[in-house]
Amino acid sequence: MIVWHFFRVFIHLLAGLFTCGLLFPFSSPATQEKLIRRWSRKLLAICTVDVVFDDRSQGLHAEPAMIVSNHVSWLDIFVINTLHPCHFVAKSDIRSWPLIGWLCEKAGTIFLARGKQREVRRIYEGLVHQIQAGKRIAFFPEGTTAAQGTVLPFHANLFEAAIEAQVPVQPFVIRYVDMQGEFHPAANFIGDMTFVDSMREILKAPKMRAELIRLPAIPTRDAHRRDIALQARTAAQQALHIAETV
């Protein structure tokens, strides 16, 4: 059965390559978003992941805005894309992943090499221009994935782009649960686990539910990036009922 699921994922990835290579160059931004949303939903369906959207913003959500979220798995990108197709800032390692790295690049992912301050500055300046041009930018401020039940400290550097572009920060949180509402262990993508290892765990595991929770937007006017990062992380911890961890 798992071989069949892997085959379906492979065929779906090929369909994504076809879409990006042949349809994207001739599609409007709105059509591209529709294609990304549809492709992401199909991928998650093949992986037996249901997505449930929970709006806890109390009417205080914002667009345009810079989207941030906690980071559990490679699935996070596609979960967010089912609601808001975004240009993600992601670690450069993803570019080397088979097929999916190329797909992420063609879908507008911005790759960032960790530990290179000059690279951070270059990416930051590009983000400001893209936000001002109306593009929806998202990133995971933890900088890496964390096991469910943990929210790592949020790195503050890229929050400066939202301040300079004069847009709010729109926080989301993602959790993956089983049918009993408990954290689903197959979603964790940590340590030395490879993309293929993670895919295998997900495909052989019982069905999971991805809960995408939108929280109130955080104003950035006259704010400091570290304060915004702390506020976003605290909001994520509270939404996930997680006490201070690090």
TrEMBL record:
Cell cycle keyword on record: no
GO annotation, biological process: phosphatidic acid biosynthetic process
Location of the Phospholipid/glycerol acyltransferase domain: 65-177
Statement: the UniProt record of this protein carries the keyword NAD: no
Keywords attached to this entry: Acyltransferase, Lipid biosynthesis, Lipid metabolism, Transferase
Record protein name field: 1-acyl-sn-glycerol-3-phosphate acyltransferase
GO molecular function: 1-acylglycerol-3-phosphate O-acyltransferase activity
PANTHER family in the cross-refs: 1-ACYL-SN-GLYCEROL-3-PHOSPHATE ACYLTRANSFERASE, 1-ACYL-SN-GLYCEROL-3-PHOSPHATE ACYLTRANSFERASE-RELATED
